[in-house]
Amino acid sequence: MTPPEIELDSPIVAQQTMSAQASVGADIKTSEIETQDREKSSPIIPQSPPSLETESIIHTPISDSQTTDTSASNNNANEVENAISIYDLYSTKKRSLILFVNAATSLILPFCDTVYLPALPSIQSDFNTSESLVSASVSVYLLAIGVFSLFWGNFCDRYGRRISLLLSLITFIGLTFVCLFSPNIIVLVIFRALQGVVIAGILPTGQSSIGDIYPLHQRGMALGLYTIPLLVGPILGPLVGGGLSQSLGWRSTFVALLILGGIFLVSTFFLIPETHPYFVLTRKKTIAEGRNIIEAKDLRKPKMLPFYDPILFLGDTKLLSHVLVLPILFMTMFISMVQLPIVLAQPPYNLNEALTGVCFIPTGFGMLVGCVITGRLSDHAALKFKPTVGRLFYSCFIAWITPIAALIFGWSFQYKTNLAIPLVFSFVLGFGCSSFFPALMAYVSGVKQEKAAAASALVNFLMFILAGVGVWVSPSIVAAIGIGPLFTIAAGLCVLVLAVECAVVYSKMTNTPSMIDESGETQL
Q1: Is the Cβ–Cβ distance between 339 and 411 less than 8 Å?
Q2: Could you give the CA distance from residue 161 to residue 156 in angstroms, rounded to a whole number?
Q3: 516 - beta bridge partners?
Q4: To 10 degrees, the CA torsion angle through 24, 26, 27, 32?
Q5: Which terminus of the chain, N or C, has fewer Cβ atoms within 10 Å?
Q6: Are 375 and 224 in contact (CB under 8 A)?
Q7: Cα-based torsion angle of the residue sequence 173, 178, 179, 183 in order, rounded to the nearest 10 degrees
Q8: Which of 225, 157, 467, 457 lies closest to 319, judged by CA?
Q9: What is the C-alpha to C-alpha distance for residues 450 and 438, in angstroms, rounded to an integer?
């Protein structure tokens, strides 16, 4: 059954409608009374019409201080818009030219050291002197580079890159003339040491110059290219020097150094400008064309600091164990390079200078390959592990091939084995030594962010000092106990520092987080 329909005009509906209307009307009246009561109890706040309020804001007078602030803001905005970085002062072509000339000039440092290594037996014979004094002509060169690299770093910061490079090359050429005409071994040793004093300025000057012209995000690539001649030098030096010594005598190696030094001096004079930021902005303001330099506010007049400042970093526990590894590895490798021509000139090998120079190729090639491969592994480790100490992880283990190669290299010569064996392991020795170089230098610059150049100078100082000492004492040790025991001692030192290094790196990676402290140095 369906419900009955209700007619709208029926008496019942009409009555219900009238009742509902009366109820609604009562409710409305009650609401109006309550609203009036609230308005009486609350204060009345007059409100301006929107149009009047808008006109009031538009026509409010502006004070003089507000006008000044607005002008200053506009000027600051214009200055920011007009500002450029100091790196923008150099075009890509100019940067590449400066990089190329500086990198080529850096070749002279390892070339000068290794070019006459194949001729050491001939020098000993010509001067009728001892093997120790002949080796001293190599060791004093290394010692001088190590000590005076600390001085030249401060010097080029205080007086500029260009003047430091020119001064270094000019004095090097003069000293090479004396070495060329040395009448005896004492004069040769003294002036070889002075060569090391002045040539030590090449490396810090070139590295800092690259840092002056390349921004941070491009600097790693630029410094990698700059390093290539430093690694090629140990290959070219003995190869060229062996051929010259064989055909023209050992003094011809110093003629080659004179020619090379003259070429680099001329190219530096005409192609390398001053790049030190302070001197660029104070002496050459016109090159910025009146625009503001972003970095200008942070520049201060450089001061000459004590040359021993970087040595104080040895008291820093974040560096001590790490910076001792590479110098020991480098010393071991350099002892092998000095002993190689001496052993090859003796029976059963009896090689001439030219063939001896060829035998240096494996060591140099191993260094070159080692730096390239482990440099990439170092960057990978920095991303995979911690950005500071984790960078050393792979290099710690790869470097263990150095003591193994040193043992086989030394004892193969002790027992007069086939020449192929020591040459193969000279490649391994070069690879192992260089495997720690890129990782350590990147780590040092990360830990000492504000003093990266000084920290790098400390590593160079230790490398060349220990290499010089090792080369100096190695002939006496060989004469006393033999070449096999000599490299057993060197391998033992490598094992010692690597064991400590692995323990330290593992401990820091597992126990201590990496962070940046208030001074800008990385805490490990």
Answers
A1: no
A2: 5
A3: 522
A4: 130
A5: N
A6: yes
A7: 170
A8: 457
A9: 19
pLDDT tens per residue, range 216-240:
556 656 766 777 788 778 888 888 9
- Spatial separation of the C-alpha atoms in residues 130 and 121, rounded to whole Å: 10
With a CB cutoff of 8 Å and minimum separation 6, the contacts of 508 are 386, 389, 524
How far apart are alpha carbons 274 and 283 in whole angstroms?
10
Question: What residues contact residue 237 under an 8 Å CB cut-off, 6+ apart?
Answer: 110, 111, 112, 113, 114, 115, 117, 360
Length of the chain: 524
Q: Give me 318's structure tokens.
A: 């974040």
Q: What is the DSSP letter of 4?
A: P
Q: Give one DSSP letter per residue of 466-502, joined into a string.
A: HHHHHHHHHHHHHHHH-HHHHHHHHHHHHHHHHHHHH
**pLDDT tens, residue by residue, 50-92:** 443 333 333 444 454 454 454 445 544 444 555 677 777 888 8
The overall average pLDDT reported for the chain is 78
Query: Rounded CA gap, 511 and 524, in Å?
Result: 9
H or E segment at 523? strand 522-523
Task: Pinpoint the alpha helices (H) of 107-130.
Answer: 108-114, 120-127
> Which sign, positive or negative, has the C-alpha torsion 221, 225, 230, 235?
positive
